[in-house]
Every structure is written in structure tokens, then in C-alpha cells.
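This is your field. Have a critical look at both lines of this record:
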Amino acid sequence: MSGLIKLSRFAFAARASVVQAAPALVRNYTPFNPPVRKQETLSIKRNRLLYESRKRGNLENGIILATFADTHLSKMNEKQLAAYDYLINQPDSDWDIYYWAIGQRERS
């Protein structure tokens, strides 16, 4: 699960760096609130996250995240699934995840 923790830390660090770099945008910033899925079982959530990991905005992330999801989603508990869900469904996080995964950007 260290990969999930690393991805999660990166998402929060990337968001913080955007806020620091663009203070004018912060005034109009609306925090991302993913939809609440109260009736979603763990099995359905795993299937949804696997699908969302494969169907990304770019092919590279689809391959990276789908490989990660195939390997780790079945072992994740509810809290870890929620963290992964939050990470991959952040607006505009695809390129941040990609550059971090290929080693062109440092994790914070």
C-alpha cells in the first residue's frame, strides 16, 4: 500500500503548489467534492475504480493507473479505496500523476 500513500501525498502536495503558484485563482477556487455514493458496496466501488483507472484523459495514465488498480484494488480496505477514489478523481490531476510516476517531478 505504500504506492497508494505516495500517490495520495503527491495529490495533496500538487494541489498545494497550484494554490501557492496562482493566488489570483484561489479567490475563485471551489473545492472539489466528489459525489457521495451511499449505496455503493465495496465490490461495486472496486469495479468503478478499476473502470475509472482504465478510462483516463490520456493513454499513459490509463496504463499506469489500470496496472496499479489491477494489482492493488482487491487488497484495499474501505479507507484506502476512498483515498484512491479521491486521488484519481481530482480535477486536472492526470498530468501531475503522470509526471510523478515517470520520475520527472519530485514528490513532496
